[in-house]
Amino acid sequence: MAKSGFLSKIGGVHARVGAASNLMPISQDSVRERLELLDNFEELKLGWFWATDAKGRLIYLSHSAIETLGQSADEIIGKSLPDLFVPDKDSDPGKAERPLPFLLSARHSFADMPARVALPQQDEEIWWSISGKPQIGSDGTFLGYRGSAKDITFSRERERDTARLAQYDGLTGLANRNHMEKRLTATLIAYKAAKRSCALMLLDLDRFKAVNDTLGHPAGDEVLKQVAQRLQKVIGSDCEIGRIGGDEFQILLPDIDDRGQLGDIATRLIQMIAQPYSVNGNRAIIGASVGIAIAPYDGLDAEDLVSSADLALYSSKSGGRGQFRFYSSELKEGARLRKQIEEDLRDAIPQDQLEMHYQPLIQAGSNIVKGFEALMRWNNPESGWISPGIFIPIAEETSVITELGEWALRRACRDAAEWPGDLTVAVNVSAVQFANEDFVQVVKNVLESSGLDPARLELEITESVFMADPHATKRMFARLKKLGIRLALDDFGTGYSSLSYLSQAPFDKLKIDQSFVRGATENGSNNAAIIDAVVSLANALGMITVAEGVEAKDELDLVVNRGATLIQGYVFAKALPHNEVLQRLEEGRLEYDIVGPARHRSERKTVFRRVGVIHEDHRYEAVLRNLSSSGAMIEGILNVPKETDLVLDLGEGQLVVAKVRRSKEATQGLEFETTLVSDGADGLCTRHRISPYALAAAGMPLQALPTGYYPLVGNDGDHGPKSRPQFLEVTTSKSAWNTD
Ligand code: C2E
Ligand code: CA
Ligand code: CA
What we know:
Layout: H1 3-23, H2 31-43, E1 48-52, E2 58-61, H3 63-69, H4 73-76, H5 100-105, E3 110-116, E4 127-136, E5 142-151, H6 153-167, H7 177-194, E6 198-206, H8 208-215, H9 217-234, E7 240-245, E8 248-254, H10 259-274, E9 277-279, E10 282-284, E11 287-295, H11 302-318, E12 324-326, H12 329-348, E13 354-363, E14 369-380, E15 384-386, H13 388-398, H14 401-416, E16 424-428, H15 431-434, H16 439-450, E17 457-461, H17 470-482, E18 486-492, H18 499-504, E19 509-512, H19 514-517, H20 527-540, E20 544-547, H21 553-561, E21 566-567, E22 576-577, H22 578-586, E23 609-615, E24 618-627, E25 631-635, E26 637-638, E27 645-649, E28 655-664, E29 667-672, E30 677-678, E31 684-685, H23 692-697, E32 728-729
Parallel strand pairs: 11-12, 14-16, 16-17, 17-18, 18-19, 19-20, 20-21
Antiparallel strand pairs: 1-2, 1-5, 3-4, 4-5, 6-8, 6-11, 7-8, 9-10, 13-14, 13-21, 13-22, 14-15, 23-24, 23-27, 24-25, 25-29, 26-32, 27-28, 28-29, 30-31
The structure holds ligand C2E and calcium ion (CA) (2 copies).
């Protein structure tokens, strides 16, 4: 109902009632005058009256109400009241209100019952609110009902809109955060009682900010809408999808706990989202990272499950994005460590725990040092030396990086100023520092206070700086170049490696990431060809190249032959403390010897992990020698015959049914009954785990799966008679079978 119509009606009442009251007061005793008032009320459709006889048949309905129904009085009179309304089919049993027919037959009074009017045109919706009171004669007999009704269509629509707004995200039409929270909480409570499982996926878009920054917010909105549509395409209708933040989505998948199936779904989601988007004639490309947690295994209530899925998402993002990850208790331990490091880092500068070490950059061919890269070292009083590969990313998340980065720059320039000649110093700069407007001023101050020639300072930045606002980035490049310093693009080839970055920014040097050097000498590797291409590209753009992480003589030969300008790697030297570097320089030893091995040896991945092996009622300890998706080699139990059925306990509730296929002394080759699936990282996991419900039924408290092994699995349980162990356990030490 239009607002203007509604208001004009109110206005009309005022006019008429007002006019009447100006004429003379209506006497409370005058039946005629009061009837006239009621007539007015009915005519203006402010409300209607109705009455039924003892049999429930309508004997009266206001004329204007009959008009609304689109029928004649003859058709209406004699019907039962509920016939005028659409039966309330979806009234759920939990609803407080009783349906109208029930109230009438029980002869109850009722007030403000909403009911949808039955209309010949089904798409139109009119709602009335009805009230009624049974009429009892002086002798106590039931005479029928009298009541009133009014139109509530407008306020109902408004209520419904408000409710929708409160539950759904206006942009994508998906459930909003609030609604998802309620849904998840309610589902988990119900599922706990019913011993059902439910998976939760958190999905976060990668590089979405870049779309907003380069194409504008309306384009970003359009991409989000398309993302929502793609999600709906992959995810079945029995699952709920919500947008819970700018570019963060949540998916609730009831009754799935198969990690193989969930991994497949996550992979499909990631692939779908990575397809290009077309927005107003522009192409946008984004990615997605997914974290998965499953109730009851990884959390019983909403809070725990969400925090588990969060940890898994965090791990998939830091694992390189565009990946999925299952929650595991290791992640929780990792998060604890991260927090510890975060706290300890605050003391690192004030307590003088940081140092800068310097690794030489050597000229290809002559083996003469041309400069050094400054690498930060942290001596933590409790844990000893912590790798910058671990603490720098944490510092970047907590913005401590600004302080660390400034300290590194200051120290490196001060040290380099003591070096003879024109040796350069390369300092790593985090994207967080780079995005800070003050950064240029910091560099300028440091140069002034150290007295270092700007031409000798080089800043190493990674492609991640291009994720920020492109205009600000461009301005930053220009301002830095104006100081007279040099710029290097670090880790080239590991990021998004858009060639357009190279032409956008004034780089002097390109550092080829060590992942291309590693294995470049192996047969069938494309890496040598990639190095070739990168070197010629850099030459064409007037940049010099550094091959990073060169460890062996064969790798050195390869990168030198492919034309790399400079070499950095253990083949010449690791990063050394400043006093050692200075001493060498003062002795004039600028040429470096090749100290690396002749050939690069690929690391063999050996597994050394304790596992449980269950045979009949007995549990043995063994060591896992290797593991593939279809089988494993274990060591530690003597002379287990071929074809023996065993259960391997991989910990964390992961049991694998296996058959012994090969057996020699204390070593057995096992074949799994069901293959393992990817855990999203490099590892493997079982599709299913022991359900916490089953553990609870066996006497453990109901909780998410704890770490390690469970005493109830295997011989430590006290259920039923125990057979005697049939095999002899032997202790294996790592050295005992270290054959290589
Ligand atoms: P990066 O900038 O790529 O630095 C090169 C890393 O490779 C260094 O690790 C270096 O020790 C290592 N490396 C050099 N040659 C070889 C080799 O032949 N084989 C192998 N396997 N590794 C080699 P490091 O010192 O652990 O630093 C790790 C990362 O931490 C650096 O990677 C850089 O991204 C970051 N980082 C270190 N210092 C700083 C700093 O002062 N500021 C910032 N923002 N980041 C820093
Ligand atoms: Ca670097
Ligand atoms: Ca690097």
